[in-house]
Each structure stands twice: as C-alpha cells, then as structure tokens.
Amino acid sequence: MSGLVSGLGRRTLELLRIFGHHATFFVDLLKACPAALRRPYLVVAQIHAIGNLSLVIILASGLAVGFVLALQMYYALVTYGASESLGLIVNLSLTRELGPVVTALLFAGRAGTSLTAEIGLMKAGEQLAAMDMMAVDPMSRVLAPRFLGGIVSMPILAILFSSVGILGAYVVAVLLIGVDAGNFWSIMQSGVDVRRDIGNGVIKSIVFGFICTFVALYQGYEAEATPEGVAHGTTRTVVIASLGILMMDFILTALMFSTP
Amino acid sequence: MSDVQAAAETTAHPHADLLVEIEHVIFGYDGGRTILNDVSMSFGRGKVTAILGGSGCGKTTLLRLMGGVYPVDRGTVRFDGKVVDARNAEQLFALRRRLGVLFQFGALFTDLSVFDNVAFPLREHTDLDETMIRDIVLMKLNAVGLRGAAALRISEISGGMARRVALARAIALDPELIMYDEPFAGLDPISMAIAANLIRTLNDTTGATAILVSHDVEQCFSICDYAYLMSSQGKVVARGTAKELAESEDPEVRQFIRGEPDGPVRFHYPARPLAEDFGVGA
Amino acid sequence: MGKKSVETMVGIFVLLGLAGLVFLALKAANLGSFSGGDTYMVTAYFDNIGALKVRAPVRSAGVTVGRVASIKLDPKLYQGVVQLAIQHDVQFPTDSSLRILTSGLLGDQYVGVEPGAGDKMWAAGDTIKQTQSAVVLESLISQFLFSKAADAGGAPATAAAASGGKK
Known about the structure:
The complex is a heterotrimer of chains A (about 260), B (about 280) and C (about 170). Chain A is mainly α and about 260 residues long. Chain A is built from nine helices and no strands. Chain A has helices at about 1-35, 40-50, 55-80, 85-125, 125-135, 140-175, 180-190, 195-220, 225-255. In chain A, α4 packs antiparallel against α9 and α8 packs antiparallel against α9 (about 225-255). With about 280 residues, chain B is α/β, with parallel strands linked by helices. Chain B has eleven helices and ten strands. In chain B, the strands form two sheets. Chain B has a six-stranded mixed sheet, with helices on both faces. In chain B, α4 (about 115-125) runs parallel beside α6, α5 (about 130-145) crosses α6 (about 160-170) and α7 (about 190-205) packs parallel to α8 (about 215-225). The N and C termini of chain B lie far apart (about 60 Å). Chain C is of the alpha/beta class and about 170 residues long. Helices cover about 30% and strands about 30% of the residues of chain C. Chain C is built from three helices and eight strands; from the N terminus they run αββββββββαα. In chain C, a hairpin with a 2-residue loop joins β2 and β3 (about 65-75). The radius of gyration of chain C is 26 Å and the shape is elongated. The termini of chain C are far apart. Chains in contact: A-B, A-C. Chains A and C meet through α2, α6, α7 and α8 of A and α1 of C.
C-alpha cells in the first residue's frame, strides 16, 4: 500500500519536473528567437523546408475534405430544403474548425516528425555539441529558426487548406450536384464574418503552430541518441502534439465562439 | 625513420609552459556515477599530449570539461592560467574561439557541403567577405589533402575523408588548442597513418597544442610527446613519454600497452562461480 | 538548392497564403459588401428587443445600411437601449420608425427602418422614439387564444345545437 502511494508521489514529482523542463526549454527557445531573426535566411530556409514541402499534402487533403464536406452536408441539408446554405456551412466548418485543426494534425505528422528526427539525429551525431564547442549557440542557429519557420508556415497552410476546401466544395456542390452558384456564394458571404470566423481561425492556427513546432523540437532535443530513441521521439511528437491541438481547439472554440 | 618519428624523439618537458592544467578534478554526470576520480594532468604548450585508456574511463568527459561543457564537481580546470568556469557564458565564448575540436566520427553538419562545413566557423565568427573565406577554406582543405572534394556533400564522402574534413573545420580559425576525440577510431591503416601524420605536422607547423584522446597505442606513441594512461575507475594510472610507458613494469600499464586480454583489467565480468551456473560439481 | 531559389519558393508560398486569405475575406465572407467604414451613431429605445444581437444588420427596403453597435438596458425606463451605426452616406428623416423584424421564417432578427416623410434628417447622436418592439411568440399565441375565446363565447349555443343534432 505504501509502495503504491510512494510510487504515485514519485510519478507526480517526475511529471512536475518534466513540465518545468518543458517550460525552461520554451523560454530558452523564445530567448533565442531575436538572434535567429538577425539571420533571416535561416528562417526562410526553414519556412521552405517546413511549409513549402508540406504544400502537396495540405492542398490534396483540403480538396478531399472540401469534396466530402459538400457531399455530406448536402445529404443532411436537402432533407430540410436548406441545400442553398451548403456553401455557408462548408465555409464555417472549414475556416472555424477543420482548416486549423486538420492542417495542424497533418503538420504534426509530416513536418513535426521530420523536425523531431532531424534534431534527434543531429544531437546523436554530436552536431549540436560541435556547434556548442565552436561557440555557436545551437538554440539560435538550429532550433529557433525552425520554431519561427513552423509558426509562420502553419497559418498559411491552414488558410490554403480552407481556401482549397471551399473551392472543392464549389466543384461538388455547383458543378456536380447542381446547387445554384449564385446562392452558394451569396449566402456564404452574408453569413461568414471576416474578423470572427476567418480571424479566429487564423489565431487558432498560429496557436497550433506554436504547439506543434515546440513539441517536435523538444522531443527531438530530448530524444535518446539511439535509433529507438529517435523512433520513440517521433511517435511522442505526433501523439502529444495531436492531443495538445485537440484540447486547445476546445478551449479556443469555447473562448471565441461562445458569445454569438 | 620517418620525419614523424624523428619529431617524436625530442623529449618533452611537460612542466615547462602549460596551456591547460587539470587539478584534482572529481566529476560525475548529474550526480550519478563518479567518472573522474581525482585526476590531475598538465598539457605543455606546443606539444602533442595523449590521453590513453579503455572505453568508459572518462577520456571524452575530460575533453568536455576542458571545453567548459560541464562544470567540475571539485577541482579546477585552467586554460592559459585562468580557471574555466562552465557557467560563465562570456568567458566560455572567448575560450572556445581559441579552441578547435575534432569529434569522434567527425560531427560534420550533414545538411551542408564539405566547403560550407569548413567555412562555418569563419562565417559565424568573422566578418570576412566570401572571397577571403573561400581562400582560407581551400587552404585548410589543401592542408588535409581534400581541396578537390570541396563541392561534395557529406553523404558522398567516406569515413576517413569525413574525419579529415572535420580536422580542416577544427583548424579553420587557427586555434591555439586542438582536441582530438578518438581520431583513429574505425579507420583503415592508410587513413590512420594520414591522420597521425596530419596531427603531428599541424602541431609542428602552427605551434598549436594538441590533446589526443585515443585507445590506439601504436599511433599515439608514434606522434605524442607525452602521454597519460587512465583506468576504468577514472584515475590516472601512469604518465610519461612514449618510451617511459613502453618500458614500464606496472602490470596495468603493461596490459594496456601490449594489449593483453587478461591482467589487472579482468577478462570475465563478475559472475557466480562456474559450477553454480552450470550445475556441475559437488 | 541554391539560396536564391529557396527564397523565391518561400516568397511564392507566402504569396499563395496571402492570396488565400484575400480570397476567403472577399469571396467567402462579408468583407466586400459592408466594411463598416464611416458611420454615424443613433440611439433607439425598444420595449422588447426580442432576439436582436450586436452586429445584427440595420436594413431599409431590404438593403443593409448599418449594424447594431451595442445593446443595453436603461436602468430607469427599463427599456432596451440600442445603438445603431448607420453608413454616413445614408440618411433618414427624423420621423422614420424602427421595427425589429425576422429575416425569413426562422432567421436572425434585424432592425428595419421605415423611412418617414419629413425634411430634417437624423443627425449623429439622435434618439429615435418611434420604435416597434419585436414580436414575442408567447404574446402572439396568448393573443390568438384570447381572440378565439372571445369568438367562442359569442356562439356556444350554435355549436352545442350543431353537435347535439349530429348525435
């Protein structure tokens, strides 16, 4: 019995320690950002590696989600004779929720894992220690540019996801099903507010960008310098980032959209 | 006799002008097992000093302490007379500008080319323009015999070549102290000879101080002026010139120098008596 | 990848993002129609605002000419105080009246402006007195039942005779 309690106590303390370690890492990362911004090419190169190279999967997924949304929403709305509101529903679903969240989940899977593996292997190959010994701060040179790259890429990817989704929905709704094109756009336009829906969606994706990139960098940095260590690190990145995104999504949605 | 061996014949006077001094250092990672147990060493300016010992005896840890990566638990590390404080970022920065490190297996930046790897310290720490940097990089690569490989990517070069590129990078800023962590590990005989030659020649031509951590007795003895032998308990077991160590009568020293499988360092990992494990005997 | 080509690709990426944002804002949302630029404020008092919300449209002849800026309760009069932001290029006579209407059968509520016939126009900060509250469903139902009861009270004999004759 006492063994159970002491075990629980130990685990709680360990959890607190890990939490504190996360916090100190985050602060160190933020402190290194100004130095990274003085070398803009580093950040630009990372935006390319993280953002540009994720374009294909984001655009393809956005299109697919747009298609499916239009189809499913049509089947639901047509029973109430409200199929004209299809554009509005698809837009709101995408810009408020699916755009930021699905993009973030895909981002965690594609860019997050690659960041974790890259940092983990750099650490294992002593590249970060080499930089340290050469009096170059690896935080400013390697980690902070990737952090900034992720934060910049994420909102852009989310916007592109939503845009492509809406276009995909247009193709299915208007061209395939036959919903009136004029109504599709006009009802959408009257119901979607720039500041509230699109703006909040962008804010969400920025927050998700913080979460995903930070978790990926932390897991890579703290991973054990073995193949299994890096593999565990990448898995943890996806799991923790995904859970963090979904939980933050709930909190942000409650904060942003509770008052009509 | 090659010019490398001739250079090694001059007896070094280890207590003359010292660049690095380690005094009674005790150290363990994060309060775990004590790796270094009261270690004292000194490294003469302009000399090649070797630290020999088996795996896990703390040789690499010593290099980390000298570079100020970790603070010592007890004792002092002195560089050029000043105590190295691992917590003083400014002092460390100044120290590391005078330091060149060759990591085990190179630790090259895999996302950059050979040229960019060697140019890295120059670009980070100097304001030289690209034409000057290009000249310096090619000169350093020439010194290690790889000027023609400047445009290759790291994935395209062999292990021996990678080690040489790492050496070129370590000397890019003409450091006063060069630390070599296992420079001969995993190399073929030709590459090993090249590496040994480079280390010695570099020292003689630039007047830098070299600290060599290795377990390759033959190569180290052929180029070092002075050597320390460490045991797996983190203690210095023997010190002296290559000649003195080779002639030592100490059983531990002899076992290491001659490479004997069993001696003071036991072959068998501590275990139960044979009879017990195999259920044999009365 | 050369430095220049990387920078170009990133430039394209960021431009695509901006284009997406512009597309969403203009084509997919209401930025293009009403930008809430120059407006002037007027105040209106309502007995019951119904389900009117802030940012609900103010319409005249079906055209959106403004938005509800704020909704408060007057502590002395116990009436709803609604501040309306009207586009500065649209003016209504001082005897115009305001009604709270519902768009469609189940739609959101908005403020409808019935223009009057006077010469003087609303000025910024004016208070409008001619208002009609929103229709409350419960009052409507009780009104209907009341009037039905009144009708039924006038012809109970006819109904009883008719039902008695059918037996």
